[in-house]
């Protein structure tokens, strides 16, 4: 990491940062996120590995910890009644758009192959081809301030290596590689389509939440007495 004093992150802190970074790019009109929107993003059932079920109090605790390390900042919404949160991941880690997209994908979806990452990153950052993904991963491994990712051992019967991030500390490469999903090589195109469908479903759900939050803010504003 650029700042060697930044401590390792907990699984929930990783999820919170990943959700903030994802929603900034996929639903920018509704970013920064409210606490409710952030909790919903953390508890999504699709495009998440592992799936979590966390409370507002738990997410707030993670936010407070991340704020102390300058990884998260907060501001007020237009109504001045709702606190919203944004991330500083690229600034703290010194990452560009492509590196951030790959890192966020691994933070949210667990260990993946280069092909899976390229598909999952489609709405975060568009990589020209797999060799471009490989080039970014190589740079993430050889960073002067320490690697951000690690290549895992191949699973039995798998044609490709999977990669994992290191924001939570060293990875048990053997266990992590087996924990990742396995698919027959002939189903790669189906997997890519399923991944794209999951992303679209997530965005629709995020838009619905954002509309409900906007309605709530408008209702509260109308209910306030005239100055």
Secondary structure blueprint with pairings:
Elements (H helix, E strand, L loop, with lengths): L10 H16 L6 E2 H8 L13 H13 L3 E5 L6 E5 L1 H5 L3 H13 L4 H7 L9 H12 L7 E3 L11 E3 L7 H7 L8 H36 L4
Antiparallel strand pairs: 1-3, 2-3, 4-5
Helix pairs in contact: 1-2, 1-3, 1-5
CATH architecture descriptor of the domain at 96-172 and 184-194: Orthogonal Bundle
CATH class of the domain at 96-172 and 184-194: Mainly Alpha
Approximately how much beta-strand content do the residues carry? 5-15%
Strand count, sense and closure of the main sheet? 3 strands, antiparallel
Given the structure, what is the number of helices? Answer: 9
Mean pLDDT across all amino acids: 83
Report strand order across the widest sheet.
1-3-2
Distance between the termini: 49 Å
Description:
- There is one protein chain.
- This protein has 227 residues and is mainly α.
- The protein has a domain of 88 residues: Winged helix-like DNA-binding domain superfamily/Winged helix DNA-binding domain (Arc Repressor Mutant, subunit A), CATH 1.10.10.10.
- It has 9 helices and 5 strands, in the order αβααββααααββαα.
- A 3-stranded antiparallel sheet has the order 1-3-2.
- α1 packs across α5.
- It is globular and about 60 Å long.
- The N terminus is likely disordered.
